[in-house]
């Protein structure tokens, strides 16, 4: 029997999630929530650039929660905690691209979500690429060493090809540099720090403290990406580091380096992907880089792959999440998630 899934919004990541649900042999799309009025009533296939699938997007949350569905794939720009609580309490599992364990949202929110999941006897799981799947890859690499002292993880990308560029507006991009953007980044990007909890749990690291470091880069000239203006002198890049330590030893280091094009001040090197290093016996180094497939090149939207690699770890996890015990689940709790062999 299929696992019945409702897609919650069809933005950049949500559109790829819909394609992933339709192609997944265990999943069936049974509904779709639209936040934008203009999308309500439209066929979900059409909204995702596909042929119609016979399911219309709806803005009626009560009607959607009344659908006999197993799981909601929750992908709005920001989560609405009341909404997630309602979905869970209605007995639907939730998978999301903006969730790890809610520790950074505070005890109150975390326990509300845990309680709602227990009430509905369902679970809540979040992934994506980072935060999410890439951290899991980094953690499991350590298996091949006698032991390890440190794990370093770096996401380094040029965002000038990223269609969801406006997602960086709330981090101060396009604004005059000021200390407030450090604090905003620490708060808005809190789910990144939660990945330290997951890695620590997977690798038995007794983390005693987590700290955050931030630097920004500015653009020397006016520039614009996907209609988003970055005036000369404004923030057009940032480096953030989350460090989990055990006493005085820094053990888990997660870093992002995001640039909007070349020629920023300072100009950090762009490594186009993920670099992971285990400082152990032996040392283990891995690079994960995503390359557009032939069909993505032919479709003329190679940059969409950033949304695919965000959506698919979430979609592939649905069977395991629906089978898991009630409550908040992470990669440290779920069994190994297996993708499907899908010949043409
Ligand atoms: N973990 C990762 O690796 C990773 C990577 C990238 C993104 N993300 C996260 O994934 C989520 C989706 O990203 P995205 O790029 O797809 O986002 P997006 O395209 O900007 O927005 C997703 C949808 O959110 C709805 N929306 C827009 N403004 C809203 C508002 N003010 N209140 C409520 N809903 C609103 C819209 O729904 P309609 O479709 O109905 O119009 C929109 O299509 C975000 O939370 C993002 O941070 C995670």
UniProtKB/TrEMBL annotation:
Report which superkingdom the organism of origin falls in. Answer: Bacteria
Q: What is this protein called?
A: Dihydrodipicolinate reductase
Q: Which Pfam families match?
A: DAP_DH_C (PF19328)
- What region holds the 2,4-diaminopentanoate dehydrogenase C-terminal domain? 192-338
